[in-house]
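Technical annex, item 7. During the second reporting period the consortium partners agreed on a shared format for inverse folding records so that results from different sites could be compared directly. Each record opens with the tokenized structure and is followed by the designed sequence. A conforming record, contributed by the partner at site C, is shown below for reference.
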């Protein structure tokens, strides 16, 4: 896909989906990290319910979650799926943030991008996607997180090669879009994936970018 094609796709997406207002609002880095851990392999609404459940029981701070019993965290986030594993990760990551960084992830604002990314990824349960979400949404760093929708949709649109891995997809998208568009591209590809470019049965006929898509299925 040329840069021109990529720009056209972004233009059509901007005309068809809105960017949620919360995207630009200031966010608590630790809370975004916990939400992203909760969101792994589950639908957004389950993540939101689990986060609400956790917030009702505990202040969402490294200190309180490091002190919490794993069993109590499990009860609070049961709806999130993989809750046993996620509860252990939440407690452990909280403990380490407290121990190694004095209970604050504010280093993401001051350290150079690659260094903050590496430091985040060194924490348990924090992979490249979680680190990229935190860095982009909280600190406006130049990275484009690749979730399951971004991965599928960008491959179908041939914005990236079908065999690309996480870093391949991220790198290819970052090379065709300007850093100021990373946040909208991330959010708009997710909207397209949820509404039209579904994993099993993509709705190509009503899809707003179907004339630009090499994977379009004409009968659908
Ligand atoms: S035309 Fe079909 S495959 Fe292409 S982006 Fe739209 S829904 Fe996905």
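Designed sequence (site C submission):
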């Amino acid at each position: 896909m040329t840069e021109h094609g990529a720009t056209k796709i972004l233009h059509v997406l901007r005309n068809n989906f809105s960017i949620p207002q919360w995207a630009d609002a200031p966010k608590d880095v630790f809370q975004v990290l916990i939400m992203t851990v909760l969101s792994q392999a589950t639908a957004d609404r389950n993540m939101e319910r689990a986060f609400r459940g956790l917030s009702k029981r505990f202040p969402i701070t490294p200190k309180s979650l490091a002190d919490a019993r794993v069993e109590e965290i499990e009860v609070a986030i049961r709806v999130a799926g993989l809750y046993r594993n996620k509860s252990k990760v939440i407690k452990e990551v909280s403990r380490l943030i407290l121990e190694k960084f004095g209970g604050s992830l504010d280093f993401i604002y001051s350290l150079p991008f690659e260094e903050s990314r590496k430091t985040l990824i060194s924490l348990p349960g924090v992979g490249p996607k979680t680190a990229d979400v935190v860095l982009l949404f909280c600190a406006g760093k130049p990275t484009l997180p690749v979730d399951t929708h971004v991965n599928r949709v960008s491959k179908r649109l041939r914005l990236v090669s079908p065999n690309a891995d996480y870093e391949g997809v991220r790198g290819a998208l970052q090379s065709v879009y300007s850093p100021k568009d990373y946040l909208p591209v991330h959010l708009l590809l997710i909207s397209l994936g949820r509404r039209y470019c579904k994993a099993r049965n993509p709705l190509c006929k009503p899809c707003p970018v179907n004339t630009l898509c090499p994977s379009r299925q004409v009968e659908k």
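Residues 3-21+144-212 form a domain with the Endonuclease Iii, domain 2 fold (CATH 1.10.1670.10). The pocket of iron/sulfur cluster is lined by residues 153, 156-157, 196-197, 202-204, 207, 209-210, 213, 215-216 (CB under 6 Å). All partners now use this format for quarterly exchanges.
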